[in-house]
Each structure stands twice: as structure tokens, then as C-alpha cells.
Amino acid sequence: MFFFLPELPKSQVHNNYLQRQFPTVIILGVKKAGTRALLEALQMHPKVVGAPNEVYFFNGFHTRGLEWYRQKMPLSSPDQITIEKSPTYFTSVENTQVVHRMFVFSRSTRKPLKLLVVVRDPAKRCLSEYTDLLARSRKNEIPAVHETFESFVLNKNGSVNADSPLVKTGLYIKHLTEWLEYFPPDELHFVSGEGLVKNPYKEIKAVETFLGLETFFTKMNFKFVRQKAFPCFVPDVSDAGKSFCLPPNKGRQHVQVQTRTLRLLREFYQPFNKQFYAKVRRNFNWP
Length: 287
Ligand code: A3P
What we know:
Blueprint: E1 2-3, E2 19-20, E3 25-29, H1 35-42, E4 48-50, H2 57-61, H3 66-71, E5 75-76, E6 81-85, H4 95-108, E7 114-119, H5 122-138, H6 149-153, H7 165-168, H8 172-180, E8 188-192, H9 193-198, H10 200-211, E9 222-225, E10 230-233, E11 243-244, H11 259-280
Helix pairs in contact: 8-11
Bound molecules: adenosine-3'-5'-diphosphate (A3P).
């Protein structure tokens, strides 16, 4: 038996000392790499609460002011930390300003800010975003998408279109360079999107350490549910029946595209991926 995301943040079960606190952890991205899975997994920890919605304060709503931002945060007790995720922060086109704004914010809060970024094979990430665009277009959430995957990511001459927003998102090293202009490397932690699916315990345990959280996570917090074909979450290991999975729009079957296009994308990304591995000192082994 499993159900989807719990409706009430667990902080609401406490009655005392609840307030909205600024985030001390921000998930910067990357879109379609596993950001929702990361936030939901972390929220199983009793000392973590997450903003219910993506806020896009630093790259969208910053003119509304910090109090507006704080009001978007969930209620929490003083011993809990608040996390928000806005998956386009990391790759935002006006990155320099976004990074600067977040840096100023981070130096004005009492607790140091820690930044998390989930990264995934950039070619697969492109395909995931395209699949998502088609699904949202079918539901009329966005204007109809008629273009093929190829026309989104390739130029007319068949080469990879490095100016395509879908393609640019996966140039992780370029975005990271902007962030490192302001933030020291030890304030950023990279999570493997593939790892979140194959071995979520290992990835989340590394985040637990990076955030300096009390030891909580065990392998029992994650269980593979066959109908979902992805890991689901068990917040209370003494009651494994009460697990929850991410909704159906996470972990979709990708649309079929030409194998040649994926190969071209992978060749295109390879040198950037290598530079990225070297910079973050982790080999993600993307094909
Ligand atoms: P796909 O739908 O392409 O498989 P985001 O939350 O950033 O939009 O990322 C969505 C991706 O999270 C999914 O992409 C899926 O691969 C990945 N993911 C990682 N862990 C997951 C989990 N436990 N359940 C569902 N999807 C998960």
C-alpha cells in the first residue's frame, strides 16, 4: 500500500514556537534531474521542513522583498531547518545577478546558507524536459508544442544547437563557474540524479553529512515500488506501510527519439562534463 505526498508538513503537529524561517538550504536545480525527489527525501528527516512550492525569489520575485520570501516558507520550530527549491536558479540566464543576490542574502542571515544541486546526464535531462513539455502541452498548461525533439536541440545543419535553452541547461560547468565567482566550493554540494534513483540512501546520506544534520537516514527509508519503478519514501521505518511515492509526472517514460540525436548530444556534452567532473571532484560517469 502506498500513497502520494503527505498533505500536512510535519511541523504542524507541534503547536509551540512555530514560525516561518528563511531557508538555510537552497536546492538550486537542475530542472528534471531529480530535485523533487531530493526535497521529499530530505523532508523525511525530523529536523527538515521544505517550502511547499517552488519560490523563484532570486530569479523572479526578488522585488517583492525578503518578507514576501519568508512568508513563502513553511512553519517550523527553531531546531528545524528550512529548505526551498527553485530548479532554475542554477542555470538562470541572468545568472550573475542571481548569484550576487543570493550571495548578499547568504551573508545577511544568521545561519550560513548551503547550496544543493542535483545533476543528471545532460542528454537524458534534455529528453526528460522535452517529454515534460509535450505532456504539459497536451494538458494545455503551456502553448501547444508541435516541434520534434530534433528541432529543439539541433541546428538545421544537424549540429547541436548550443543556444537552445534545453541544451544550455546541461552545460553545468558554465553555470558552476558563475556560482564560484561568489560562493566558495565547500558551500555547494552536488547530488547525482542517477544515484537518487539507483542508490538513494547513499546520495541522501552524503547530503545529511554535508548539511551537518543529526544522523537519521537508513536504507529502510527508501523502498523500491514495482508499480512506480522508482524508489519511494518511508518516513517512519517502524511503519513501512506508510510509504509515499512521487506523483506520476516524475519518472515518466520518455518519448522515443532518434538514437543519433542522443549520440550527438552526448558527444557535444562530453568535454563540458569532463571539466565539470574535475571541478567538483566527482566522476558522474555519464555516457
Ligand atoms: P523523468 O521523469 O525524466 O524520469 P525533477 O523533480 O527535478 O523535475 O526531476 C524529475 C526526475 O526525477 C525524473 O525524471 C526521475 O528520473 C527523477 N527521480 C529521481 N528519483 C525519483 C523518484 N524517487 N521518483 C520519481 N522520479 C525520480
